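ugh ok so i messed up the first submission bc i forgot one of the chains. this is the corrected input, ALL of the components this time, i swear. 1094 residues overall. if the numbers dont match what u have on ur side tell me asap before i send this to the collaborators (the ones from the other lab, u know who)
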Amino acid sequence: MNPFKFSKAANERAAMRMVQGDASADFIAGGTNKIDLIRQYVETNSQLVDINMLPLRDIKTVKVTGGNFLRIGALARMSDVAEAPLVKQNFPVISEALLLSASPQLRNMASIGGNLMQRTRCPYFRQTAFPQCNKRQPGSGCASIKGENRTNAVLGTSDHCIATHASDLAVALVALDAVVELHSSRGVRRVPLVDFHLLPSATPHLETVLQHGELITAVDVPMLPFASNSHYLKVRDRASYEFAICSAAVALDMNGENVRTARVAFGGIATKPWRSREAEAALQGKPANESMFREAARVALQGATPQSQNAFKIELAQRTLVRALTDVAAKNGGRI
Amino acid sequence: MNKAIGQPLNRVDGRLKVSGGARYAYEMPVNGVVYGVLVQSAIAKGRVTNIDSSSALRAPGVLAVITHQNAPRLARPMRLPSGDSYPILQNPEIHFSGQNIAVVVADTLERAEHAAKLVRATYDAQKPIADMDAILGEAFDPPTGLTGGRPSKSMRGDVEGGWQNAVVRVEQTYVTPIYHHNAMEPHATIAQWDGDNLLCYNATQNVNGNRQALSSAFGISVDNVRVVNHFVGGGFGSKGMSWPHTVITALAAKVVGRPVKLALTREQMYFSNGHRPRTVQKVSLGADSQGKLVAIRHNTISHTSILDDFVEPTGLLTQMLYSCPNVEIVQRLVRLNVGTPTFTRAPGEASGSFALETAMDELAYAAKLDPLELRLRNYAERDEHEKKEFSSKSLRQCYEMGAEQFGWAKRNPQNSSMRDGRLLVGYGMATATYPANFRGSSARAAITSDGRVLIKTASHDLGTGTYTILAQIAADALAVSPERVRVEIGDTRLPEAPGAGGSTSAASVGSGVQAAAQVLRQKLVQMTLSDSESPLYGLKPPQVDVEDARVFAKDDRARGETYVQLMARHQERLIEAQADITERRSQKGQQGNSQGAQSGNAQAGNAKGDEGEKSFHGFGAQFMEVRVDPDLGTVRVVRALGVFANGTILNLKTARSQIIGGMTMGIGMALLEATHLDANFGRYTNANLAEYLVPVNADIPDIEVHFVDEKDEFVNPLGVKGVGEIGIVGAAAAVANAVFHATGKRVRELPITLDKLL
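and heres the new structure output, hopefully the right one now
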């Protein structure tokens, strides 16, 4: 790896100061993704600022701007969040998404803030010997479009990048209208997670709205009553320890046999955690049955663009959504 | 006294391994060692126009940057069909991505890694040949045949005539992707020069092969080279050949005048140290109205590299597995800009059995026969290719026991007829076979005055249990307890033994060790019988026996003495004996000649009887049960059962572990594993263990392994047929056949990923 300076920040202010003053400095928390990228020379930071000392590990309920939220500290570990009773009872979709991620060892280290910042598994991005990757080297081209792309995206792609966003957790969180709290020397801002990640368009190297030196301090999830009726379904080749080929996060607010409100998001098929308001609209007020679920799935994938090896994802994603909705509706006593 | 052979003894090196005491090649302590890091080519074809080492050389701690521009001249490595023989750092030509173009040496690993990134290579790049399907029409006959010089084509009978007369026909093309070995232990070397003498600690399955490669590269005698490797952290064939990094490490040590250690990164291991090549196999099976095979064609194209000709011999098992008068096997090659493929667990049989055994399942459906019944109707009573009787064959018992234990009779042959909730249930089976290979082997056995036994032979333990079984064999041959036996292996200073490949070690090295121990025992017996102070003085060898390290008269067990008593009287601190076995010996031959084998040369015991007319193979039957989600296409194996007939099982525990490992690898082959080659850049895209999917625990059910009791008097004195590879053979086909049973979808290109079942 590239030589770099390593320092531990005693508090938030010091952490932000250290990173802000150095254009190629960055924060490091669990390091499960960052260290890989540094070792592969995808990232070559001059300085890493360890933020693990900061008091950002709580998992609790808070009242912010008039609403009640589940607040997950940015440094809470994936394993702690997955097992927290508050999360398991009220947000099974979050707990499931976490437990289906990575391995127990990684979950013990990886932080929630870092999970949102994890970078794509696109092979051309991670192997610097490939001369093309617009995300790694802006303007160099996209080798995946003409090369290996089975695991890459069908939604949110551009001619410049088709890399899949890798997080499971973020998919569950966008479905639940989570908000990210960001701190910087300019103050505090709250960004809906759905707006936090950027589409690649012509600038795939810009992945989030996070500014240099700005720190994720918490993720707030609205205390949505029907979030207890939620589910994360992850489909992959290997039974464990693999990123999603396709996943669906769903929550259903049922009114008898009808859907009052639905939440739908996809992972593994899109360039960012993919909230499908189209599918949600298709389900709203409709009977919870297979044909309605199929229709919702169809509209969700309407804008999909297949590549040479991943057209199957368009069909698979629809089936995944239908299965996830079916299982949640059944859990709710629906007659599916 | 109970025999040690056959006991499920724990590994004698188990405690060392779990306590961190077992030292692998890279961990050997060497004073003053410095660190080498390889720089590998980013292009797959063309030439290096310049390598700028200036900033690397200025980096802290850097001792040398060695490239083709400044490397001492080396001889081209011996041309071997299964290892790279391209010149090592001798010219700017690039034949594959990941070819070594420089080595950086520095005082710490981190500094060497960093400096390696500062080496700037510029290239004149050409478009590589990396799309195998586009060049299948250019396939050619391998110039030197298969490994060992066997022909790449064979034909018996009238295949076209048989095909024309067939009532039921299957003709399909089966594809297996590139596989990598992915041993846990990386390839690694430590090299240390003392004048013209080279000491190498090397992660290898073949210390003597390494020694030859190093001596030829540096133009020194093999006597000047010592290669040591006490433990191998998995090899699966990848460490069978001598790869360039070993020579490069020795070269670097010469240049900097200090010992150098070098390990490949996981990514580098995908590019430069062999793989199982992709195969495109066209199989034609014709049968008569009774399901009896009348024609078999097995036509394979596999890839090799630009400079070497490695053939994955997929057709070998097709020649002998079933009875059929008309059989044609053809193996051809195409060249790709990739590193040279090499042996991978059951080279040939693993990929070949996927094609043949899937085709057999297709034929069973076409002939409306149970797949097991079809195999029984085509049971080969003798090896029809070699035209020899089998030394032993218990495949019928494997089928019977497997079907019984698995509950094959409960299988409804109709596709998608069995369900478990929303999941489809499938049963599949396939046959396994692997040759019972044998190579010459030497060993030395010694006993010390306190009765400890020391066995020395330059064999290897790949984590398979070689240390343990050799101790068991020596213990029985000398009639001592296995706890008294210490085994030393993995050093070219020890008596020569073959490389660990082809499932040969148990049979070959085991025979050498047994012979050496027997010679030692005869020496000890002779000593006591000819010593006037011995209680056994004057008796003849047939009148005595040995038990529990004590020689006694058969007709008066109280009359005798222990080895220790004997040696104390003679004031001997150590007595040793050596045996050199150069060819296969049978149990019968050995027994008949054991009297004469006192010279220390067990060749006297070689029998030149009819065993040379035999064909030697292990056999097995694989049964798999899968659950398929019909909506999502996901497949999980829920039951795996294998029954194998491999002669004497030396150690039930280590043998079972070997089979479990093989079957696991077969399930991985069926459902998960594949290395993806980017056709534009000629580079593997998933060169890591996150994206190259090997099975994890959640993918593998409890695997049930049974061994059929089989006595083989011909195969070797121990009656052993090695079990290292047969477990993978047929496993992938059994899974694929189960998937077909569950879904009605026949997937002929591995792996069977969910997209192929949607």
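quick check: The longest strand of chain B covers residues 423-435. that seems consistent at least. The first helix of chain B runs from residue 14 to 18.
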